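Weekly modeling sync, notes
Attendees: AB, CL, MP (scribe)

Item 1: holo prediction request
CL wants a bound-state model with magnesium ion before deciding which constructs to order. AB pointed out that an apo prediction alone won't tell us much about the pocket. Agreed to run with the ligand included and paste results into these notes for async review.

Input as submitted:
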Amino acid sequence: MRQVEGREWWLWGFAVAVTLVLTFGILSLTFPGFHLPTDRLYTLSLKEWVRGLVALVLLFDIYTVYQHLLLQRVRRQLAENTRLFQLISENAADMIAVVDTNGHRLYNSPAYQRILGYSPEELAATPATHQIHPDDCARVSEAAEKARLTGIGERLEYRIRHKDGSWRMLESTASAIRGPNGESEGLVIVNRDITDRKRAEDLLVHNAFHDGLTDLPNRALFLDRMGRAIAVARRHADFKFAVLFIDIDGFKVFNDSLGHATGDALLIQIAQRLSACLRRADTISRARFDDSPELPVGENTLARPGGDEFVVLAEELGNPSDAIRVAERIQEKLAVPFSLGSHKIGVTASIGIVFKGHIGNEAPEELLRDAEIAMYRAKHSGKARCEVFDNAMHAGAVKRLQLETDMRKALEMGEFLVYYQPIVSLGNRQIVGFEALTRWQRPQGIVMPGEFIAVADETGVIVSINQQLMLDSFRQLRRWQELFPGDPPLTMSVNISPRQFQQAGLSAQISQILQQSGVDPNCVNLEITETIAMADAQKSAVVLQELKALGVHLEIDDFGTGYSSLSRLQRFPVDTLKIDRAFVSRMDSDPETHEIVRTIVMLAQNLGLKVVAEGVETEEQVEMLKRVSCKWAQGYLFSKPAAPPAVERLLECNRRRAVPLHRAKAGASSAG
Ligand code: C2E
Ligand code: MG
Ligand code: MG
């Protein structure tokens, strides 16, 4: 438009010039004094002059009309563009604003009223930055300045106040309005309301770092906070903090007995109670490290890494006893019963503590792991306790890790062997069956189950070890049953570990092994300790029923070491009780133990259960057991667990019946 207007000026200038020329020409023809010298006009007659002038005027007119038409078209286009701009800006979902170089509003599209509630008059009465959040104002002004200088500004997000006082989040881009010489004359700003999108994005981020059930920070966020605490501790020698690993004792039992919904409700209540008791106001003084902007100093961070576990990052502690006090307070608060519907539930927790003063290169994951190790120590030493992590625990954990690796290798190398310990009938000392017991044949010698079974169970390696053991021992049984047939045939007892017992599909797995080995399930005894069976009686009953359906016999191992009574065991489809060695070994010296054994045998037989005495080492024990009507036994007196060739020699003796078993054992190469 400016160009066209410029051309219009030029046209007017040209018109004035032509008028002057015409005036001058006519004057020169009209007034004698204005006559041009005839010698200079020798070729032009008056007629030609007039014709020339008329042509000039005509040309000028044509040009004027042409320019006028051009101008008209540009004006129409401009009007059309203005109408289009208005149409777009007034119907656009985005808010469009035009401001001058001083930040005064020149135009605000109607979307402003729709989205932010301000009328055009209200906007016109305030400067463009008036409603912007004070914390964002500087950023917005800077971006506007940049847009003025460079032409197009960067995409920017900032908060603006709605007329109702709430804050909305806008996404904005600004473009400079340029003058004819390229100078900036203002800005066109397009603002989009992204409040809802932002909320959704924030929610996604929140969910990524928080636990869905309790809304506490999750493991990832906790590790991040720990990382920051470590960074502060590295810079400030006297910044000390602790990580507390809290595990609710026996939570599985609550979950299984009251249902998962109640279990979840309990976890939420625990989270709330922990948050309340960890609030900083009533704990240790704070604000000594406020110069570390990266950390919200003095905060106690509570997080839920998963399941029934909670972790606490307690900062600015003086010494480990401060952390123990925090743990004790947690224990106290949890001890107050929780109300869940009609239930009142008392909860205890095992707490592992890692206290950190001078920090080295430790990673957050390592500290969390150490706290967990300490928690396990607390759990193993009797629950409802707390333990502070020390180097011995670390050494223990490293050893366990090494053991786990070695066991996995041993599995591949076939280093796990099966030894068999006979079970005899006390009446005639005949071998009626065997218990299969694992041995680990390492280059440095045989390792006994006591040294690795517990770790194998915790790490899950036991599942593979026992699968192999079952297959080997069942095949072995078939072979011995063929070589040494009897009536009833020989039996094989195998131990089921806690981990195996909890494993889904255990019965399917055993059924497959039974088929693979071709053994008669009726000759197989599965030993489950009393503690495993009682841990979750309801679930145990289901699993035991499934196992029983395979046609195998079920035995309760180490009976007397748990807390159950015979009447509670009655619920389970068990066939045999194995009285723990601890009772048998004391029965000849302690009358009370003798009485216990007598009662167990009597009650068991009343319930139709077979009883096997474990760990029989003396003839006195045999006599006593016989007197209380115990019919079967197992122990070093008859044979230590032995490798198959030695067992075969025993079976040979057994067949001949010539040599009593306790004398034949001297020939067997024992290894137990
Ligand atoms: P358990 O099932 O109660 O096995 C009996 C243990 O008592 C065996 O120890 C056996 O050697 C020992 N024993 C038997 N008679 C006597 C005796 O007269 N005196 C003494 N002092 N001990 C006797 P072992 O083989 O060391 O096994 C210990 C425990 O390890 C077993 O106790 C069982 O719970 C577990 N275990 C062994 N092998 C396996 C296995 O393959 N799988 C599973 N899950 N656990 C196993
Ligand atoms: Mg056993
Ligand atoms: Mg036992």
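Recorded for review: Residues 92-199 form a domain with the Beta-Lactamase fold (CATH 3.30.450.20).
Action items: CL to compare against the apo run; MP to circulate these notes.
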